[in-house]
Amino acid sequence: MNLSKKSALSIGLALGSGSSRGWAHIGIIRALSEIGIEPDIVCGCSIGSIVGASYLAGNLDTLEDWVCSLTQTDVVKFLEFNPLLRGFVDATRLQSFFTKYICEENTQFRDLSRIFATVSTDLESGREIWFTKGQVLNSVWASISLPGLFPPIQSQGRWLVDGGLVNPVPVSICRALGADIVLAVNLNGDIVGKHFFKQKPNKKNKDDENVFLTFKKSVKNYSDSFFEKIKGKDNPPSLLDAISGSINITQDRITRSRMAGDPPDILLSPKLAHIGLLEFHRAKEAIQEGKDCVERMFPEIQYIMKL
C-alpha cells in the first residue's frame, strides 16, 4: 500500500517515552512514510526526542543501521557503576553517540526540516518544560534524563529530568504548535507487570555475556539485590525489577490521565512488553513491531486521514 496524503491539514506526530522500547518509533516513522504520511510537526519525549531529532536532522538511516547492530556488549559499555555518581550512564560516550547519530552539537531547532519540540520536567516545581528553540541536543539531554540512570540537567537556572514524569506522550505540545491531526505513539500501553514474565532472551553471544557479567559483578559488590531476587519463601523482586516496574506503572498511569484529557486522533500502541527497560540491543524486534503496529491500524489511519 502506497497512498499519498490528500489532506491539507497539519499533521503532528507525538513520539512517547519508553526507554529501549523507543526504537519502535523508527519502524512507525518508516511505515507511515510508506503510506504517504509525513508529519509537519514532531514532538518527542525521552527516547522519542532522540528518534524525532535524528529523523528531522536527516540521520534516521544512520541511527537505524547503528541500533540494529547493537549487541549487549555495546549497551553495557554505555553504563558505569559508582555509588558516588548521580546516574548509571557514561555521559561522555553518550554525547559522542548523540553527535554521530542524532545531529551535530550546535544544531539549532531552526535548522531541522520541520517543527520540532521536546518536553522535560522541572525537578523543583514538577512543571513540564517545552523546548522549541535553541540547541537540539541540549533539549534531548533534558528530555531523557531519567532519574537513576542520568543526572539532572541544568538549563536556565532549573534542574531538569525526564519528560516522561509529566507528559509521556506529548499530544498537547503537537496541538499547541498547530497540529490539526495528531498521531500519538504510546510505548507503555501493555507493560504494567509484564516484565516479571518476560520471554526467555535470545541466545547470548559469549563475549556479550562476559561483559554483562563484569558490569553485574561491579553492581553486586554494592548491592546484591540489584539484579537477583532475595532468597526465601516469598521472594521479592530484585531492585532492578522493582525500579523497572515502578517506572512502568508511573508512565502508564500518567499517559492514561494525560490522553484522557487530550486524546490523539490516532493512537499507535505497539506491543513491546517483552522488551526490558535497558534492552537497547533488541532494536530489530522493536522496529518491526512499530511497522506491524501501523499495519494493524491502517484501516483507522485511512479513515481519519481520508487516504
Rg, nearest Å: 19 Å
Number of helices: 11
What would the principal axes of the Cα set say about the shape? globular
Largest beta-sheet details: 8 strands, mixed
Say how many strands there are.
8
* Termini gap: 11 Å
> Into which percent range does the helicity of residues fall?
40-55%
Mean pLDDT score: 83
Unreliable sequence segments: 1-5, 197-201, 218-230
- Secondary-structure element order, N to C: EHEHHHHEEHEEHEHHEHH
What is the strand content? 5-15%
**Strand-pairing-aware structural class:** alpha/beta
Layout of SSEs?
Layout lengths: L10 E5 L8 H11 L6 E5 L1 H10 L3 H10 L2 H6 L13 H11 L13 E8 L5 E4 L4 H9 L8 E3 L2 E5 L8 H6 L4 E5 L20 H15 L18 H23 L4 E3 L14 H14 L1 H8 L2
Provide an overview of this structure.
The protein is of the alpha/beta class and 307 residues long. It has eleven helices and eight strands. The protein has helices spanning 24-34, 47-56, 60-69, 72-77, 91-101, 136-144, 171-176, 206-220, 239-261, 283-296, 298-305; strands at 11-15, 41-45, 115-122, 128-131, 153-155, 158-162, 181-185, 266-268. Strands 1, 2, 3, 4, 5, 6, 7 and 8 form an eight-stranded mixed β-sheet that branches. Strand 1, helix 1 (24-34) and strand 2 (41-45) form a beta-alpha-beta unit. Helix 1 (24-34) crosses helix 10 and helix 2 (47-56) runs antiparallel to helix 6 (136-144). The model is unreliable at 1-5, 197-201 and 218-230 (pLDDT under 50).
Compact overview of the structure:
The protein has helices at residues 24-34, 47-56, 60-69, 72-77, 91-101, 136-144, 171-176, 206-220, 239-261, 283-296, 298-305; strands at residues 11-15, 41-45, 115-122, 128-131, 153-155, 158-162, 181-185, 266-268. The chain has 307 residues and is an alpha/beta fold.
